[in-house]
Amino acid sequence: MPRVVADDVAHDPSVVPASIARQETEIVRVDLETVEKEALLDERASFRFWTFNGTVPGPLVRVRVGDTVEVYLKNREDSWLMHNVDFHAATGPGGGAELTSCAPGEAKAFRFKALNPGLYVYHCAVPPVAMHVANGMYGMILVEPESGLPPVDREFYVMQGEIYTTEPFGSEGLLNEDYDKLLNERPEYFVLNGHVSALTDHYPMKANVGETIRIFFGNGGPNHVSSFHVIGEIFDRVYLNGSVTKPPQTDVQTVVVPAGGSAIVELKLEVPGRYVLVDHSLSRVERGLAGWLDVEGKEAPDIFEPIAS
């Protein structure tokens, strides 16, 4: 589980559950607590986030196809609002939302069988659903296929989100959510893993030359499509829409991920340096959406080097 800091909701992208080695199915317990907390939005502003387990996104859940997933949801007593959870990986009405609707101080549970392998989003589904999602209530569950995923050197967990505030981007102080901007799909902030600079100043991703990394990427939305891109790299393999039952696409520059959708990308790191994660709708960089992948190791002049002018 990521380390939770009182004034920071960012989820460390390197905190990923280990791959599943077992061949038999199991009952897997998932404990989620809905936590509303005032925390940093950027270096000048704060925001009252609504979260699962105190981070945005909530924890990455990892199970095997055929497992029975038991979800225990608790809404903290100091919450202002009702919350629940809808698992896109669940087959059943509301994905469990109706069965887990909790007023502050309540706790409820349900179980589902993970019938379909893939990478799926979960989110709060209390009306207005878009507001609960925009304020931070989303995460993902990976349902591994029976054969598992191919081994890689490192895995990371990254999700994109939108934040709608009454105050314009760059304001100071405690900012307020804005329902009209939400309905008109005009976010002031676009973020990776919770807030501005979460994956730059706070938790930059780190790896080494020669390693192959995997990124579990999701788009919490609630409204805008993401064009996920890593500047200076090419995705060697892409599992589109989080589907792991067909061969991945190869040699892909940018991946389109809809709101409430996902993708799994893999890339081998050949050249050291800083690579920037962006949404290639590049105006969103100016509204806070960027992350760093810092790669250390020996230079590779046969692949990339300056030319004296």
Task: Tell me briefly what this model is.
The chain is mainly β and 309 residues long. The chain contains 2 helices and 20 strands.
What does this structure look like?
- This protein has two helices and 20 strands.
- It has helices spanning 129-134, 179-183; strands spanning 27-40, 45-52, 61-64, 68-75, 86-87, 107-113, 118-123, 138-144, 154-163, 173-175, 189-192, 205-208, 212-221, 226-231, 235-239, 249-252, 254-257, 261-268, 273-279, 291-296.
- The termini are far apart.
- The protein has 309 residues and is mainly beta.
- The protein has two domains: 27-144, Immunoglobulin-like, CATH 2.60.40.420; 154-296, Cupredoxins -  blue copper proteins (Immunoglobulin-like, Sandwich), CATH 2.60.40.420.
- Residues 41-147 form the Plastocyanin-like domain.
- This is Copper-containing nitrite reductase.
- Keywords: Copper, Metal-binding, Oxidoreductase, Repeat.
Q: State the name of the first-level CATH class of the largest domain.
A: Mainly Beta
> What would CATH call the homologous superfamily of the largest domain?
Cupredoxins -  blue copper proteins
Number of strands: 20
Biggest β-sheet: strands ordered side by side in the sheet: 11-9-13-18-15-16
